[in-house]
Amino acid sequence: MTTQVAGRKMFLAGEWVNSDRIIEVRDPQDNSIIDTVPAASAEDMLKCIEAAKEGAKIAAAMSVHERMEVINKAADYIEANKEKYARTIAQEGSKTIREATKEVARCIQTLRISGEEARRIHGETIPFDQMPGNENRVGYYYRVPIGIIGAITPFNDPLNLVAHKVGPAIASGNAIIVKPATVTPLSALLLAEAFAKAGLPPKVLAVVTGYGHEIGDVLVTHPAIRMISFTGGLEAGEGIVRKAGLKKIGMELGSNSPVIVLEDANLEEAVESTVSGAFWAAGQNCLGVQRIYVQEGISNQFEAAFVKRTNQYKIGDKQSESTDMGPLITEKEAIRVENLVNEALQKGAALLTGGTRNGAFYSPTVLKNIPEDSTIAKEEIFGPVVMLFPVSNLDEAIEKSNGVNYGLQAGIFTKNIDKAHKAIAKMDVGGIMINDSSDYRIDAMPFGGMKNSGLGREGIKFAIHEMTEPKLVCYKLSNSTFSS
Which end of the chain has a smaller Cβ tally under 10 Å, C or N? Predict the structure, then answer.
């Protein structure tokens, strides 16, 4: 961090502003400086929250058609500038240009769905005459915005995961303050740019760049913030819950996603899907495939095919269309993954391929014979490492899949509908994909997990539900109203 004017300004209360300190944004591929952003202070965050109090009133007063128009104009702006958005994601983060291009397309979709869902924020009538003596009462409830939402977002989807909080917040008439990941703030600022160009009223949206230990606690603990929506690691999430106080909490945390492959599966599809699911965005994906339980009758065949496909992955320049996988977000993260793998190897795990590091790059890695007491077997790796386990049957696969403290999503490959439904019923996860990887997701579906994988659900319709409160209305009418 340096004291000078930042190259890129942050978005506070509808204005682009600087601060007297900067944060350097670096490309993890070569550690070169891409740009600089302001390092906001606690005072900056407090000013932002004060402005957001007025912004919440402005947002709540916007008609549904006004919210829809602004959100769709923002989506139009991103679509018109999609190459700039994709290049920014691929520069500041770990994604290849192909992965970044897909993220931009998903962000546009996320916003368009948000605009549509704005018209579907419904209540319902309530039959008060279900209780004797209330025959002259009628009423209903409708949903109202909660006020100001604080959003803390991760580096691995620096545009779309911000849109997953901003789109529903604006659609439901709330103000929102975004604190993006320190290492990937540029994509979030580009999202703010789209909303500024779309005519969003000032003070409704803020994107505050800075360090979590300086501004995060101010946002989390402030009583004017009525909801914290957080996507990130378990430890940070637990810290937020302890500090937040009396407010709504949305937590999308980590995972250790399992996939089950049974003997009747389409092997080629299972291999292709799980390799992609394991190494997308260099494995830095909460839904990424980490554990694969393969029925013993096909385990050798699956292992050989999986390793062969993994070895075909091209690792290198993120900006090249031919690259399959880029670096991790920092060299420190690559070293962390390297240490996890080395610990497992020292305890007896077998390395089938990969296991090498070059700066922030870590090769796609496949392990087997993993000891149960190794850290990598139970915790989230968040890197390009996958583990193969042979199992005798579905019951064993389900038991081992459930044997961790996470439960976000899972996958199973089988042609047997009874076995698929058994997995659906018995697996402790928020979502299960049949004949697909655990990392499958569309932006409209309810997304979230069980156990230590989080609280609440994202996905636009479901996020809007979290970001609104029901308000009850009951009319007591004169008895003559009901008389003949």
Answer: C
Closest CA to 157 of 77, 87, 89: 89
Catalytic member of 92, 103, 193, 252: 252
Distance CA(4)–CA(7), nearest Å, equals 9
Q: Taking residues 32-57, what's their average pLDDT?
A: 97
pLDDT tens, residue by residue, 211-265? 999 999 999 999 999 999 999 999 999 999 999 999 999 999 999 999 999 999 9
Q: How many residues does the chain have?
A: 484
Active-site residue among 107, 286, 303, 333?
286
Report how far apart, in Å, the C-alpha atoms of 153 and of each of 158, 166, 244, 343 are. 7, 11, 16, 30
Residue pLDDT, tens place only, 217-232: 999 999 999 999 999 9
Q: For every residue of the chain, which 3-state class applies, written as one string? A: CECCCCCCCEEECCEEECCCCEEEEECCCCCCEEEEEECCCHHHHHHHHHHHHHHHHHHHHCCHHHHHHHHHHHHHHHHHCHHHHHHHHHHHCCCCHHHHHHHHHHHHHHHHHHHHHHHHCCCEEECHHHCCCCCCEEEEEEEEECCEEEEECCCCCCCHHHHHHHHHHHHCCCEEEEECCCCCCHHHHHHHHHHHHCCCCCCCEEECCCCHHHHHHHHHHCCCEEEEEEECCHHHHHHHHHHHCCCEEEEECCCCEEEEECCCCCHHHHHHHHHHHHHHHHHCCCCCEEEEEEEHHHHHHHHHHHHHHHHCCCECCCCCCCCCECCCCCHHHHHHHHHHHHHHHHCCCEEEECCCEECCEECCEEEECCCCCCHHHHCCCCCCEEEEEEECCHHHHHHHHCCCCEECEEEEECCCHHHHHHHHHHCCCCEEEECCCCCCCCCCCCECCEECCEECCECHHHHHHHCEEEEEEEEECCHHHHCC
* 252 included as an active-site residue: yes
